[in-house]
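Z., the sequence and structure:
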Amino acid sequence: MATTKKTAAKAETKTAAKKTAAKTETKAAATKTAAKKTETKAAAKTTATKKAAATKATAAKKTEPKFELFIQFGGATVAVADIEKNVKKVVKGKKAYTVYVKPEESKAYIVADGETTGMDVFFIAD
C-alpha cells in the first residue's frame, strides 16, 4: 500500500509540474502577443503620421498661387526667374548671395561670399 501512495504522490507531482509549465507557456505566449499588438499599433501610428504629413504637404502645394515677377524697363521685359536661373549658374558653390538688378545698365550685380560679380541681363522688347 505504501508503494501505491508513493506512485500516486509522484503522479500528482508530475501533474503539478505539467500544470506549472503550461501556465508559464501561456504567460509567455500572452506576452509575445501583447508585444506584437504594441508593435502593430506603433507601426499604424507611424503610417498614419506619414500619411497626414503627406496630405498636408499636398494641400499646401495646391493652395499656393503661381507667382511670377517681371522687370520692365524702356519698353523691354525680363522675367526675374530667368535672372535667378542665370545667377545660380554664376554663383556655383557659394552659400549666400545677393543680387542687385540695374535695368538702366542691363546688368545684375551679384555679391557672393564677399565678392562682387557683374552679369548681363538681356531685356527683350515687348
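The two ends are 121 Å apart (CA to CA). The chain has two helices and six strands.

Let me know what you think.
H.
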